[in-house]
Design brief:
Blueprint: H1 2-20, E1 22-35, E2 41-44, E3 75-78, E4 81-84, E5 87-88, E6 95-96, E7 99-101, E8 111-114, E9 120-125, E10 137-142, E11 148-151, E12 157-159, E13 164-172, E14 182-187, E15 193-199, E16 213-220, E17 225-234, E18 238-249, H2 262-269, E19 275-278, H3 282-285, E20 308-310, E21 314-316, H4 322-331, E22 335-340, H5 359-374, H6 380-387, E23 396-401, H7 408-424, E24 429-433, H8 441-444, E25 452-459, H9 461-466, E26 481-489, H10 498-513, E27 518-523, E28 527-529, E29 540-542, E30 547-549, H11 551-560, E31 566-574, E32 590-596, E33 598-609, E34 615-617, E35 626-630, E36 632-636, E37 639-643, E38 648-653, E39 661-672, E40 676-684, E41 687-694, H12 695-698, E42 700-707, E43 710-718, E44 728-735, E45 739-744, E46 747-753, E47 764-771, E48 776-783, E49 789-796, E50 800-810, E51 829-834, E52 839-844, E53 848-856
Parallel strand pairs: 1-49, 2-19, 2-27, 19-22, 22-23, 23-24, 24-25, 25-26, 26-27, 28-29
Antiparallel strand pairs: 1-31, 3-4, 4-7, 5-6, 8-11, 9-10, 10-18, 11-17, 12-17, 13-16, 13-18, 14-15, 14-17, 20-21, 29-30, 31-47, 32-38, 32-40, 33-34, 33-37, 33-39, 35-38, 36-37, 39-44, 40-41, 41-42, 42-43, 44-45, 45-46, 47-48, 48-53, 49-52, 50-51, 50-53
Helix pairs in contact: 5-6, 5-7, 10-11
């Protein structure tokens, strides 16, 4: 009998859970909402993770011009370290330098000489180079024909049987004429020849000057290998100089010379982006101002392009130059958004800047870039475009003034750029930067006229789910549109997974629903070579042979290819399973102190666990119990003082671990831009909660959740919230099991409760719109739970014709992801949808995004 009762109880529980997984989606087609701009979904390209060289750009030879080992522009070498000259930072006006280790693998990375030890030698030369922009070349001296010069490309060269590869290089005989032939080809890692071709020789010295000559030939592959190598060999002993050794597949995207890798370009084209933002990113600013992207050095024949060091740790050939970006935009039907340096270096590197009396030169440089793109074919720069084979204008539509810049100097520079550019090219739209955040008053006040403001978000899944309605209540009367130019779920998701993609999808539903405010968006970063990651989570990956889109790629594609013209009123009624008991001590962990770009001192630090005696750190005997993670910390005079060049500065107590209780501390600001950070709930020196007083440019008090040193504000906040320099403050934090309250001088200024965040089992989202030209209602739904959801869809204000389509992107687990070995583990499934009437049912699979396209009349 007990067994029967247990069985009945289990059946009842199963039935109640099944009932809980029901949803109702009400769509009122006759109640239009915000329009959705055709420009909503774009892409953002930056040279990072070998996105161009070794990626989209089809060049197969690494270090083709032998400049890879050259140090970064604006930096000097000393004992294996490249150091930038100390200059004032554009935010602080304090001198700042920046260093990185500089130990190239060889003087000529990517190139080796194979054969017996005494068969020959290679070395760099600089005497009478090919041209002033390519001052280095490689001298190959062969004593035995067993020697061959080899280049492995970017982690291998993908060679496919039957395909043709175009080789070109410049060569000369520096010592005496070389009368024998050369052999060029492709070989497997084991040395098997996959393609080979004999090449004619060079004239010798003429009038005492060794002349450079260009050689070209085609290599036809007889066998395949994904990690082949290029080789060049002499058929008899001799010496030759080589430069700009270039190898392209004959078949590039749209058959463009100096073009794009077809599979990577196709993945981008299939996203149907409305625009491409390029060329960066921090890449635009450079590690130093001298190291910035300079568009005029990226146009013309490739042998005239000097290239430059990319601040992500490798040299860029600039083969994928300004012209090629504009051409690629045109080839995939996208408008161009060019990001122009506005006189400021990357604030996370040196942050140096161009003096204000020289800004006009940079404004003129941007005007020249615009003229190259859209000026008449007989104008100075339009003529150069026409000479490159493109007399008609390119589809340049936007100019972004700077990248992630902010602060008073940026606002001054922006105003000068905007006025000059708008006066000459009023038909273009101009984008204003909001740093690495959003268009808060401190970011935009004093900037003058803004057309489009650029916001950036890199956060964890909880943030993206919780910010689903972020833009619903943003004022519409500020006089500018928004562009979410960089966003990605890249925290707590490893290299990316389905949970990250679904959290982005929920956020994207919210952005699309607010299409009257948000006119443009682009995920970042876009591309990554799996052999070289500079950034943890990206959209499209590849090696030498295979390219694939992550789950987030398909989310982006589904939004762009299923964009409605207008939103329609949509409501979702979903009752998740009963929420589990709240976890005890949600804020349990280590405690500590910190600062953001501020010098401060703390004293009388008291930790009082609930029901236990208080423990005080008065710093009279130093700070032995403290562990510093970043910043310079020093205990003196009974206080703990923090300074340093880092923006975030953190020190944590090694013990005790506080679960619930009280933290008290006195604090005084000495100098800097913000206020105080008091830490609690620490898991590591990069993951914790913090009470941020005077944050966001000394504008606000709030609690933050920090993951991997990146924080986002939660709960009730005080705005404005200002910390004065030189004044001592009393700070107190009351920590309960599921709530934390922050006080400043006895007054509550912030509060956060874990219950404020939605139940994770309730992560179901939906929004519908209307595609007017096709007469289709488009419903997007996200089910970011482990359970299937039976959704009853009710259509009002339109009559379905009975047919439709259902596109489902689903994974077996929230941790699943595509990779080089399983490139389509997660991919959309498109199937017919029967719509028997205005009310019908459909299933939302676990861990899925679903798009319904319903034909109506």
């Amino acid at each position: 009998m007990k067994h029967a009762i247990g069985t009945l109880a289990a059946i009842a529980l199963t039935f109640s859970l099944a009932q809980a997984q029901q949803a109702k989606i009400q769509i009122n087609v006759d109640k239009p909402g915000a329009p959705v701009a055709p420009t909503m979904w774009g892409i953002f390209f930056e040279e990072i993770n070998h996105a161009a060289d070794g990626g989209l750009y089809a060049e197969l030879i690494e270090n083709r011009s032998f400049d890879e080992a050259e140090p970064p522009e604006g930096m000097t070498l000393n004992n294996g370290t490249a150091t930038a000259v100390a200059r004032p930072h554009y935010q602080t006006n304090k001198e700042k330098t920046w260093k990185l280790g500089w130990k190239p693998a060889s003087p000529h990375p990517g190139w080796t000489l194979e054969g017996p030890a005494d068969a020959g030698s290679i070395r760099l030369g600089t005497d009478k180079p090919l041209n002033d922009n390519n001052p280095r070349y490689l001298r190959l001296e062969v004593k035995q024909t067993a020697a061959r010069l080899v280049n492995g490309g970017y982690w291998g060269i993908n060679v496919v049987e039957g395909q043709t590869y175009k080789l070109s290089f410049f060569g000369r005989c520096p010592v005496e004429p070389y009368s024998a032939s050369l052999r060029a080809g492709l070989i497997s890692p084991e040395g098997e020849v996959l393609a080979e071709q004999k090449i004619g020789t060079f004239p010798g010295k003429q009038l005492e000057v060794a002349l450079w000559h260009k050689q070209e030939c085609e290599l036809k592959a007889t066998k395949s290998h994904p990690r082949a190598r290029f080789f060049l060999a002499l058929d008899s002993p001799g010496t030759i100089d080589l430069d700009v050794v270039s190898l392209f597949p004959a078949k590039t995207f749209k058959d463009r010379p100096n073009g794009c890798r077809e599979d990577v370009a196709t993945l981008l084209a299939e996203m149907k982006p409305s625009f491409i933002r390029f060329p960066g990113g921090c890449y635009v600013e450079g590690a130093t101002f001298a190291n910035r992207y300079i568009w005029k050095r990226t146009v013309g024949p490739i042998e005239q392009r000097p290239g430059h060091w990319c601040l992500w740790g490798y040299r860029s050939t600039d083969g994928m130059g300004y012209h090629e970006f504009l051409q690629f935009c045109q080839d995939i039907g996208a408008d161009a958004l060019y990001v122009a340096n506005c006189g400021l270096g990357c604030e996370f590197r040196t942050g140096d800047f161009l003096p204000e009396d020289q800004i006009d030169e940079l404004i003129q440089d941007t005007l020249d870039a615009i003229e190259y793109a859209i000026g008449p074919a007989d104008s100075k720069w339009g003529k150069l475009r026409a000479a490159a084979g493109h007399p008609e204008p390119f589809p340049l539509r936007y100019i972004q003034i700077g990248n992630e810049n902010h602060g008073p100097r940026y606002k001054r520079n922006y105003q000068r750029f905007y006025k000059a550019l708008k006066a000459k090219y009023p038909q273009l739209q101009y984008v204003y930067c909001c740093g690495c955040g959003w268009a808060t008053p401190d970011m935009i006040d004093g900037a003058g006229k803004i057309e489009i403001a650029d916001e950036h978000f890199y956060r964890n899944p909880d943030w993206f789910f919780n910010e689903y309605r972020r833009y619903d209540n943003v004022p519409r009367d500020r006089g500018f549109d928004l562009y979410v130019g960089e966003y990605a779920c890249n925290q707590q998701v490893g290299r990316g997974n389905m949970l990250a993609a679904l959290s982005e999808a929920a956020f994207m539903i919210g952005m699309e629903r607010n299409g009257d405010l948000i006119k443009m968006t682009s995920y970042a970063p876009l591309l990554f070579n799996v052999n070289r990651l500079n950034w943890p989570v990206n959209l499209i990956g590849y090696d030498s042979a295979v390219a694939f889109g992550r789950s987030s790629y398909y989310v982006q594609k589904l939004f762009a290819t299923n964009r409605p013209d207008v939103n329609v009123a949509t409501s979702l009624d979903f009752a998740p399973p009963a929420k589990a008991d709240k976890p005890k001590a949600a804020f349990a962990g280590r405690v500590g102190l910190g600062a953001w770009d501020t010098e401060a001192e703390y004293k009388d630090f008291v930790v009082e666990p609930a029901g236990q005696p208080a423990e005080t750190a008065n710093f009279d005997d130093g700070a032995k119990a403290w562990q510093t993670h970043c910043g310079t910390w020093k205990a003196e005079g009974g206080a703990y003082r923090v300074s340093g060049s880092e923006q975030r500065r953190v020190a944590m107590l090694t013990a005790p671990r506080l679960e619930t209780g009280t933290i008290r501390v006195k604090a005084r600001k000495i100098a800097g831009h913000e206020g105080f950070l008091v830490l609690f709930g620490g898991k590591t020196g990069k993951d914790f909660f913090e009470f941020n007083l005077g944050g966001w440019g000394n504008k606000r008090h709030a609690f933050e959740i920090v993951n991997d040193n990146r924080g986002h504000a939660v709960g009730r906040q005080q705005d404005p919230g200002v910390i004065e320099t030189g004044k001592w403050y009393d700070i107190r934090i009351e920590i309960k099991a599921d709530e934390v309250i922050g006080y400043l001088d006895g007054k509550e200024v912030a509060r956060y409760r874990t219950g404020d965040a939605p139940n994770r089992d309730s992560r179901v989202y939906a929004q519908a719109g209307l595609d007017k030209s096709k007469g289709e209602v488009i419903l997007k739904a996200v089910n970011a739970t482990p359970n299937a959801v039976k959704a009853q869809v009710n259509l009002a204000g339109a009559v379905p014709t009975g047919t439709g389509r259902k596109i489902t992107l689903a994974a077996a687990s929230e941790k699943d992801e595509n990779d080089i070995n399983a490139p389509k583990k997660i991919a959309p499934k498109d199937e017919p949808l029967a719509v028997p009437g205005a009310r019908f049912e459909t299933e939302l699979a676990p861990w899925s995004m679903t798009v319904l396209r319903i034909l109506v009349k």
